[in-house]
Design a protein that fits this description.
disordered C terminus, Rossmann fold, 41% helix, 185 residues, 7 strands, disordered N terminus, seven-stranded mixed sheet, alpha/beta, single chain
Length: 185
C-alpha cells in the first residue's frame, strides 16, 4: 500500500498451527516488497533442535534479509527495525509471549505496548503467531496461562491489523481482508 493511499502501511497477522506453513507464507508476503527486508526473530537457540530450526529458517530466507534477534524487547526492536522503505516480518509472537512469561515480565502491558506501536508504524509489517486455542485444555497452570494470553494477544493484534490470514496445511485463508493486498511501499 502506498503512502499516498493511506497514512499507514499494510499490517498483516498470519496465524496457524505448528508446521502449518505460516512462516513460509509470511516470508512470501514480505518478499513481494521492493525495499529492504527485516526478519525480527524472537526465538533463542536454547538447544540443538531449536538451533537447527533457526538455521533452517535462515537458509530458506536467503541473503536479501537482515535478521534482528530479540527475544523480549519486541516493541523496541520493531520500532528500531523499521527503516525508510523497509518491510518487517516478526516471527513469532507466541515464542515472544513464552519468553515474556518465563522472564516474569508484565505480559498484559507488553501486549498493549506492541499493539500501540503497530498503530504508529508506516511500513509494511507481517506478524506470525500460533493459533493454540484449538486443542485440549492444558493440564498445568503455566500452560493454561500461556494459552489464554496467546488467545488475547492474537485477538488484540488481529483487531489492530489491516489483514489477518489463517494458514492450515499450507493453505492461506483470509480471515480479515485488507483493502489493498499490495506490499510495495
Amino acid at each position: 500500500m502506498s503512502a499516498a493511499a493511506d497514512h499507514r502501511a499494510l499490517t498483516t497477522l498470519v496465524l496457524g498451527g505448528a508446521r502449518s506453513g505460516k512462516s513460509a507464507y509470511a516470508e512470501r508476503l514480505v518478499e513481494g516488497h521492493e525495499g529492504a527486508l527485516v526478519y525480527l526473530a524472537t526465538a533463542e537457540p536454547g538447544d540443538a533442535e531449536m538451533t537447527e530450526r533457526i538455521a533452517g529458517h535462515k537458509a530458506r530466507r536467503g541473503g536479501r534479509w537482515r535478521t534482528v534477534e530479540e527475544p523480549l524487547a519486541l516493541t523496541e526492536a520493531l520500532g528500531a527495525a523499521v527503516q525508510p522503505g523497509s518491510a518487517v516480518l516478526v516471527d513469532c509472537l507466541t515464542i515472544w509471549l513464552s519468553n515474556l512469561l518465563l522472564a516474569g515480565r508484565d505480559v498484559e502491558m507488553e501486549m498493549a505496548q506492541l499493539v500501540a506501536v503497530l498503530g504508529e508504524l508506516s511500513n509494511p509489517v507481517v506478524l506470525v503467531s500460533n493459533e493454540v486455542g484449538l486443542g485440549i485444555v492444558p493440564e498445568n497452570a503455566l500452560a493454561r496461562a500461556f494459552r489464554d494470553h496467546a488467545g488475547r494477544l492474537n485477538q488484540m493484534v488481529a483487531q489492530a491489523a489491516d489483514q489477518v490470514v489463517l494458514v492450515a496445511a499450507g493453505l492461506p485463508m483470509i480471515l480479515k481482508p485488507a483493502r489493498e493486498l499490495e506490499m510495495s511501499a
